[in-house]
Amino acid sequence: MATMQDVARLARVSVSTVSYVLTGTRPISQATRDKVLAAMAELDYQPNAMARGLASRRSRILGLLLPMDERGLGATETAFVTGAAAAAGAAGYHLVLSPIGVGDLDELRRLASQRMLDGALLMEVQLHDLRVDVLREVGVPLVLIGRTADTTGLSYVDIDFEQTVQEAVGHLVNLGHRRIVYVNHSADTLAEGYGPALRTRDAFTTAMTGHGLEPLMIPAEDSAAGGRAALDTALRQAPDLTAILAMNENAVFGLLGELANRGRSVPDDVSVVSMVTSPQVAELATPALTAMSSPGSAVGRIAIETLLRHLDGGRGEIQQQLLPCALEVRGSSAPPRTADESDTGAGGDQPAPGNEAARRRAATRRRA
Amino acid sequence: MATMQDVARLARVSVSTVSYVLTGTRPISQATRDKVLAAMAELDYQPNAMARGLASRRSRILGLLLPMDERGLGATETAFVTGAAAAAGAAGYHLVLSPIGVGDLDELRRLASQRMLDGALLMEVQLHDLRVDVLREVGVPLVLIGRTADTTGLSYVDIDFEQTVQEAVGHLVNLGHRRIVYVNHSADTLAEGYGPALRTRDAFTTAMTGHGLEPLMIPAEDSAAGGRAALDTALRQAPDLTAILAMNENAVFGLLGELANRGRSVPDDVSVVSMVTSPQVAELATPALTAMSSPGSAVGRIAIETLLRHLDGGRGEIQQQLLPCALEVRGSSAPPRTADESDTGAGGDQPAPGNEAARRRAATRRRA
DNA sequence: ATGAAAGCGCTAACAA
DNA sequence: TTGTTAGCGCTTTCAT
Hints:
2 copies of one chain form a homodimer.
Chain A: H1 4-11, H2 15-23, H3 30-43, H4 49-56, E1 61-65, H5 75-90, E2 94-98, H6 105-113, E3 119-122, H7 130-138, E4 142-145, E5 155-159, H8 161-175, E6 180-184, H9 187-191, H10 195-210, E7 216-219, H11 224-237, E8 243-246, H12 251-261, E9 271-274, H13 279-282, E10 290-293, H14 297-312, E11 320-323, E12 326-328, H15 356-361
Parallel strand pairs in A: 1-2, 1-3, 3-4, 4-5, 5-11, 6-7, 6-8, 8-9, 9-10
Antiparallel strand pairs in A: 10-12
Helix pairs in contact in A: 1-2, 1-3, 5-14, 6-7, 8-10, 11-12
Chain A binds a DNA duplex (16 and 16 nucleotides) through residues 3-5, 13-20, 22-23, 25-29, 32, 47-48, 50-57.
């Protein structure tokens, strides 16, 4: 393993020159730079990360703090991760994912106070997220993917739930639906103040009221069973419902199953729109789900870019951004059977023609 | 940020003594140790990871190399990760996940030759995985989760696909099924030599032949559409099929959807058993899927323990382990409708009574 | 535009 | 059982 000494010797320059070639922190003549670069190439030199970190007091490592529960990472979250990893790599940083949730504060404190992290991205942010406190305490810059309750002084990137709900409701209303039920996360989750659940609830009320319609929300446990129960409740409270908007990616499958059980066809009897859902998941259902698809890797990329700005400038400006979800119409939404006074606006939303989109996307997966 | 100097000064000992207290590499009297520990506590001392790494030439960082495609991490893979993270933490190591697939060899080479990793775990291992070569080249110890084609000199932990298939087939045969179709990964995937697909194919042939039955395998693209197509093929080739064994977690949903479309009820007309599937995913389906559930976090834990042994001893012995999947009977499997000569063995497999298991597991999920 | 040299905070000989 | 000290490989003043 060649060291900087070796490179300097071979190039007949001092170590500091080699260092400056590497870091670019001071002008080097083209001739010298070439010599050094040639020596590096010849020796296959790679700087020692630990030595750099010790001397410069920067590890060039960014942490992505990512709680992993038993349920796995959805395609949406995975896109965040890959986007962040790509952006970090492009900037010469390593992105390490640490499966650290709010339960592992000690592990986080260790990681952070050992000066192992130049900065951190937090995923699965809670309204009162103690990880934020720990990181601030030890002075590690951070950016949230999501939002805490109080975001003063915090940079974040999050999904624009208001826009997402509004567009989803708009789609259904355009199709002619009037009786739309919103299946949210569980009552417990709401009570805990889970941000997305609260924001979408309020946005749903606003959107429906704006259309002169009555907002009806049903909480559902995050499971297929929860979805089945939610459908039962929904049909009891709104027997005339023609459309369901679902925030709960797990429940939506139970919901679809129960609809089938009861002989209600999708989308002829009931339209279903799933929110913040990846194309992959949307197409597991039969028919494939019309969904608001999440902004994906852009979230991760923007978060990293924001974080880097916080490091470089010293005091980067606080940045708070909301990214929209895009409506992707598939087979699960259509005009209600009772096509009454449905003034389907010109250029309004069309139900997907067959399953072409699904077929097109049916790519092969290769792993081993 | 207190340094070791500060601790030594406060405890009135030398820095080396503090260091030895920390590393335990030489005996320290109880009195001294207590003094040092007290000083550490008082100063809230945390060793500087970079300095340790530089001086000791060990980063105490283990890498978990984990390709992330657009599909996300399944619950099964997530369990591997959390198991590994827990085991690494318990041993005083950091586990960093790097979303590095066979496409990012340069990034891997950088990570490895910068001496940032003491060792690595590889997930999503391909039969000819170039990451293995890169790591060996730079001398980073590694353990596979999965298997390459040639495993000589390599330690690995993998799922016992032979046992899994055998048990799944046994379950169906016990229920009285005779005409069982195996829905595998895609033809492309098989052609590429994807290990699990090949191993399960062969195991299926062995198992069926062992029962005096004819093995029929259908490849399916990894998507709902692929599952629908596979069912079509299956019914064409074996109109009298009463059971389906599925390796393809994505296809199985399309398969179920298409069964419903054709008015074939599960499990009355057709039993479905899903392989290497987490409980969470199994219960998204309606009815919940009988499945061979993967060993979960044990895989990750054992892999880390093996890796640590490779570091400590210098030359740890090669270890190759296969872990079994466990049969979990849910609602998707039952005796065939045409209960003919079905000699359901005493104590044989029973279909799940209702959905109690599902309901019990319907825990709340809290995130933000 | 380049070089010399003093650390960065810790580990691990080498001494005692 | 404990202390002294020479690095680990790099960055970054301070000189020139």
